[in-house]
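Hey, I'm writing a tutorial for new members on how sequence and structure tokens pair up, and I'd like a real worked example in the thread rather than a made-up one. If someone can provide the structure for the chain below, I'll link this post from the tutorial.
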Amino acid sequence: MAAQQEYTREEVAKHNTAKSCWIIIDSEVLDVTKFVDMHPGGSGVILEVAGKEATTEFYGLHRQEVLFKYRPRFKIGTIKGEKLQIVQQVPGYISEVPYAESSFWMKMKSPYYKESHLKFRAAIRKIYDTEIVPDAASNEDMGKAPSLELYKKLGAEGVLASRIGPGPHLEGLKLPGGIKAEEFDYFHELIAHEENARLAFPGYNDGLGAGLVIGLPPVLNFGSYELKAKVAPLILLGEKRICLAITEPTAGSDVARIRATAKKTPDGKHYIVNGVKKWITNAVHCDFFSTAVQTEKGISMILIERGPGVETSAIKTSYSPAAGTGYIAFENVKVPVENLLGKEGQGFQVIMSNFNHERWAINCAVIRGTRLVVEECFKWANQREVFGKKLIEQPVIRQKLAHMIAQVESVQNWLESITYQMTLMSYKEQSLRLAGPIALNKLMATRVAHYVSDEACQIFGGRAITKTVRRHPRRFRRNHGRSRCPPGDEGLPQRQALSETSAHYNASPRYMLDWCIFPFPLSFPIKFVYEFVL
């Protein structure tokens, strides 16, 4: 950085030509003479503000990180007697933009969060901002997956483990913010998923452990003690990677149609696995695969380690190859019977109970991603001037923001209510009682995401589809739809939720308009019936 000194605005005004071009951005003086001819938008854009205040023009075209990138090269001083007016975001910064964070971080009261959650979010956000954000954009664009070195670093910091939820697997591990394993709950995990989503690079986001989030729980919840002891530490510390392999070219939501087979050897000590899996997130980079197969007794889940007979290849999708989405081909793969997850023939139960956690994690991510778009819209509306006044002063923009905020806050509060139930239930009880609420929350969250994305496009106009200006709305608009599909098409969780509700309804007194039909004889005491109805 050049030597710094203070200038008056009159002194800066003298440098207003292509041969000596200074500009002022938020009281900082930048000498951009050498950059004038290299500016992607042409020299005229800069020369219009040469020697002048350029804050409004700069932020109308660029994000703050552009200033952070070029400031060290071009800043030569500051305006005498003036201070920065625009908040400088630093690693770990908690946004003060209205509704940019969930309500507890907006100074509201909450029955769910406590001091440990504040410490946890501050710590994990700083890790993301310092270790991941600097290279995330370029890696997303190049389709470059997170390196093994970064993965190990996230494992050592406890970031990977914090996305799997509470349990014995956390014992002895370091967690962000110094949180102890015994105080870690599902709200800490919710925060971990939110912070990953806040990164806002969908392919790279998923490359950072989407496979782990859905592939490791079957091992932890249904694997043998010996299998967990062998595999879990390697995965949680980032030394190995894992994914969930269920979908096949001919079997998606209809899990019963999977064709991959696992046949026992004559001595009964191994399975021989053959088949193909498709659209498997992280498959290209993984070492372990929690795999659905057909066995002699029916659908089963088995853990397969990469080795002879296992081949993976990338699939091109609408988002970045950094996610490592791919095919997996199993050809005569020999797998120890000890790698069975749960009981043989009961794989469907393993899959469905795992779907709950997967959908819940998706809810955490999609709601946080939607909130990020709302934040971008709010900042832009206060920054952009049209027809002589800021966008936020236009009634139609205020109405759009109000509807966007109301819907995001609604699904966030529903998510937190469900998460609270998770903290009080065993894994088995969650599987039985929360499948419906989680599925319906996902249905609503993804619809809200679509609505917010559409409204953001109206607020930003052409900038919502421009790669270099407002990346969050653009990427969100292109990718949010994929959150509606996994696990299973949107109709599957709806049917599941209503089936679950109907099952409870049919086992209880059934209310029809203003009549109540009870599943007991009419001779039942009238006094009790009256009290029951009241």
